């Protein structure tokens, strides 16, 4: 009896994981490749979304730290950061879907997405 329950649990979890993967894959497929943008999150909360097609300097003021992301010629790069390690500033400019720049000390993640809405991010979070 006990063994049987465990097996069912495993099956249920696998099915759930498969379904989730299928949904995510479908969403990625239907997102389209045009209109790329960067999504900036601070401590897993969405700070803002900015199109890569538009040159911009985004000041990411989290209240305790300040970073600056520069969008230029369709790429995004961390150009200023007050974190101690400055690793984010040494990461290469991103422009392709799902590329990221991470500032670990300041809990900032910048991700390139294929445009469209942010429903994918809502599911992942
Ligand atoms: Zn940093």
Would you give an account of this structure?
The protein is α+β, with helices and mostly antiparallel strands and 125 residues long. The protein has 2 domains: 1-31; 33-116, mini-chromosome maintenance (MCM) complex, domain 2, CATH 2.60.320.10. The protein contains 3 helices and 7 strands, in the order αβββββαββα. The protein has helices spanning 2-31, 87-90, 119-124; strands at residues 37-42, 45-51, 56-61, 66-72, 75-81, 100-103, 108-113. The strands form 2 sheets. The chain has a 4-stranded antiparallel sheet with strand order 2-1-7-6. It has a 3-stranded antiparallel sheet with strand order 3-4-5. A hairpin with a 4-residue loop joins strand 3 and strand 4 (66-72). The chain is elongated and about 55 Å long. The chain starts with a helix and ends with a helix. The mean pLDDT is 87.
How would you briefly describe this protein structure?
The chain is an alpha+beta fold.
Provide tags for this entry:
alpha+beta, mini-chromosome maintenance (MCM) complex, domain 2, 2 domains, three-stranded antiparallel sheet, 7 strands, elongated, binds zinc ion
The small molecules bound here are: zinc ion
CATH superfamily of the largest domain: N-utilization substance G protein NusG, insert domain
Reading side by side through the largest sheet, how are the strands ordered? 2-1-7-6
The description of the largest β-sheet is: 4 strands, antiparallel
Give the secondary structure arrangement, pairings included:
Blueprint: H1 2-31, E1 37-42, E2 45-51, E3 56-61, E4 66-72, E5 75-81, H2 87-90, E6 100-103, E7 108-113, H3 119-124
Antiparallel strand pairs: 1-2, 1-7, 3-4, 4-5, 6-7
Bound molecules: zinc ion.
Zinc ion is lined by residues 81, 83, 86-88, 103, 105-106.
